[in-house]
Design goal:
Blueprint lengths: L32 H9 L2 E3 L9 E3 L2 H8 L4 E2 L12 H7 L13 H10 L4 H6 L1 H16 L4 E3 H6 L1 H11 L6 H12 L5 H24 L5 H8 L4 H32 L1 H9 L4 H12 L6 E5 L3 E3 L2 E3 L4 E4 L1 H4 L34 H18 L4 E2 L8 E2 L6 E2 L3 E3 L1
Parallel strand pairs: 2-8
Antiparallel strand pairs: 1-2, 3-5, 4-12, 5-8, 6-7, 9-12, 10-11
Length: 408
């Protein structure tokens, strides 16, 4: 880490780096080389975004954790200075009611408390039998009379989609509808019109679901939110939209990427296959190693913050780079190596602080079951194409792969 004199604003530290940095040829699991270099030499620096703004880029593990739990850092995207990677998202955020994801306490805490019981560790563990059943059913269908498949379409995507649909009370038959719109909302190349249309479609769909639950209540999350009686339908729809998008897209990408990473590291795959007791820690290591959010967690300083020899002024945007934080050699020695026996629990793949991912207990259970069952039932699993032909999804805020041809 470099030791720099404190700075007090843009003029004293001009942004010289355009962000996001391009991915380079080489290992697709690694952060861009330029970003990795910054993590080693300049953990707090300014970058330049598409709109000319220059937020602070935070790359080190310690500083990322400190800032994400600092009450002086705001997640409210309506605050001046909040960094946006996409013009369409900026326009959309400014024109709609903010979600829990983009609110600060006490409003964020109020909305989060309504959902906490559904995503506690105890609740996620209680879902293990159902998740295992759905996992086995998907693998039964995938392998029935076949020796190859697209693991994304046949397994990685439908598993978390099925689970979150059941929890929310959303018909799984509609999964293509919200999967397509989720893809647009996660895209960093979508136009403002495309983002707005997808957002509108999902909100209208969820509001219709909520109104139907009013007439025919059940035990789903949406039905319970309706039964509270203190939430407007648009607020319920906004919360449900957030959960259905986050509940399938991120876990689906992690299942597929984890499988690919293990196939590229057969020694680590063999360790997990031969010793199932390693799967819990192995999932944490895969979360750390892959960290599918590659363009940072955006925040804005609500007041001045001195950190690492810098002064982040009130109104300055901040991008907390959890992927480089999770490769920080001081927190994770030999961090660019996948080691399923590593103690990786201090990773920040789910974020950190008050806004850390609400659904992380569920995601952990889904990943443990999905990967453990896959390795057990398909011991001869292998790629059915060259590694170089795997279609990487790089124009999205959540990194993943478009298809994963496998054989067994």
């Amino acid at each position: 880490m470099t030791t720099a004199e404190p700075t007090t604003g843009n003029a004293e530290q001009p942004a010289a780096i355009d962000f996001p940095l391009p991915k380079a040829s080489g290992c697709p699991f690694d952060p861009p080389p330029g970003l990795a270099d910054l993590q080693r030499t300049e953990e707090i620096t300014r970058v330049r975004l598409w709109d000319g703004s220059s937020p602070w880029l935070i790359t080190g593990h310690q500083y990322v954790r400190e800032l994400l739990q600092d009450s002086r850092i705001s997640a409210d995207a309506l605050n001046p200075g909040f960094p946006f990677l996409v013009a369409g998202v900026r326009e959309l955020v400014r024109s709609m009611k903010p979600t829990m994801f983009r609110q600060d306490n006490p409003e964020h805490a109020r909305l989060r408390r309504m959902l906490t019981s559904d995503f506690m560790v105890k609740s996620a563990e209680a879902m293990r039998p159902d998740i295992q059943r759905h996992t086995d059913e998907l693998l039964d269908r995938m392998t029935d009379g076949r020796s190859s498949a697209d693991l994304v379409a046949d397994f990685a995507l439908p598993l978390p989609s099925t689970v979150i649909c059941l929890m929310l009370g959303v018909p799984y038959e509609d999964h293509s509808f919200f999967e397509e719109r989720s893809t647009t909302l996660f895209s960093i190349t979508a136009t403002a019109e495309e983002v707005r249309a997808s957002q509108h479609d999902l909100l209208r769909y969820m509001e219709d679901i909520a109104r139907a639950k009013k007439e025919k209540p059940d035990d789903s999350i949406i039905s319970r939110l309706v039964a509270r009686g203190d939430l407007e339908y648009d607020e319920i729809a906004s919360t449900a939209r957030l959960l259905v998008i986050a509940g399938h897209e991120t876990t689906a990408n992690m299942i597929a990427l984890s499988t690919l990473a293990l196939l590229r590291n057969p020694d680590q795959l063999a360790r997990l296959r031969d010793d199932p007791s390693l799967i819990t820690g192995g999932v944490e290591e895969l979360l750390r190693y892959l960290t599918i959010v590659h363009n940072g967690i955006p925040r804005v300083a609500a007041s001045d913050i001195e950190i690492g020899g810098r002064v982040i002024k009130a109104g300055d945007g901040v991008l907390c780079m959890i992927n480089t934080a999770n490769r920080d050699e001081r927190a994770f020695p030999d961090g660019h190596t996948l080691d399923v026996g590593r103690n990786a629990r201090r990773h920040v793949a789910f974020g950190f602080g008050p806004h850390q991912c609400l659904g992380q207990p569920l995601a952990r259970v889904e990943l443990q079951i999905a990967l453990g069952t896959l390795l057990r039932r398909l011991p001869k699993l292998r790629l059915d194409c060259s590694f170089e032909d795997i279609p990487l999804r790089q124009s999205t805020t959540v990194y993943g792969i478009g298809a994963l041809p496998v054989a067994w």
